[in-house]
């Protein structure tokens, strides 16, 4: 197969627009096809974008657009459920701060930036089938329309249609043992310095930071053995979930105060915490997966969005320099060790969130914890060879 000049990108969340931007920089024309009727406005709750994600966004010129919608939270404090501080970290010198933001704001910022840069994003186009030939791949959408290009890239999230087209036996999302919630609390005397993300472990886990308006935004976990779908969770009144959370966090510092200062209208229901187990096949023929479709870690990682951005840029590098089959293989070798390392660490953290790690979880120093993820850098200008990633070091190139 010859070098790629055109691509169909399925999914307009995070990985999709960034993939299209990176492909454009690589000289490859890409169109994004999104099943939703708009740029996911109102979808999801809060998320963070780490320094490594911002570094990758800088390569495609989208970092400033994202900074405009994010709140810098460079510091980290870890504590136990009694309020004892266990570790503090101020970030690595020279790196940008982690940004916290609503997921919908990130979606919109990336979509707007991509559109302004000339990327075409077609909404209301839900993929149902794809057919390959020796010359390209044709996507068929639910409205009966089709589109053809050299390759098809599945950036369609944790419930990816493209993943099942590549491998009908591919695994689906894996439940992490907890339901996830967030909320906005009145101050209530909670110690939360501006620009610092706090993580407090106890019988379960709560994270929180102070917003510019003085309120405290928090995210918490409710252990549950039997999973519920998101639709089932939202059918339960918010007041009922809040009552259960208050009962679980009774005596927890500062969980008890945060939940007491949150009303039902300020509760964010995220639903079941899920992650992708190891996906055996990332690509087949002219189709490949990127972002959450291939490697969604649970939200415990704090790296879901950042890893998706990294992978989008790396995939474009590979397609810039190699024909599809070799590019996809090199992409997987470059990315799989890193994303599975992060995903495995997040799965271990889920035990603490489910109350299985005790009140004082064993943890490395923050510098050791964050260095492998935050210090990662992609060298866009380095050529990608067919042997890229074979040393399994996780370095880009």
From TrEMBL:
InterPro entries in alphabetical order: FAD-bd (IPR002938), FAD-dep_Monooxygenase_BioMet (IPR050493), FAD/NAD-bd_sf (IPR036188)
Keywords: Monooxygenase, Oxidoreductase
The UniProt record lists the keyword Oxidoreductase: yes
Residue ranges of domain FAD-binding in the record: 5-173, 280-319
One protein family per Pfam: FAD_binding_3
Name used for this protein in its record: FAD-dependent monooxygenase
Origin: domain of life: Bacteria
